[in-house]
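Hi P.,

Sorry for the delay on this. The queue was packed all week, but I finally got your sequence through. Input first:
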Amino acid sequence: MNLSAWHEDGQGLHRDFEFADFVEAWTFMNQVAVLAETMDHHPDWKNSYNTVHITLISHDKGVVTERDRGLAEAIDQLLVSDTL
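Then the structure:
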């Protein structure tokens, strides 16, 4: 698993994603939403125009877990699958 673009600290696993425009960012967020629902693990995130910031943390554990790392990897796969 290559999570080098993700940054982990005591508050979670974080990554910023930048897209060409708002529509592309929103399309990505829709895809992540479906993925998160399928995995029953939902991100904390925010969007500002073409940038999406995602934080993953297992709130019930209070730390980053393998569930978070698995979702991060699946999110990364959306980017390489060229479905945006």
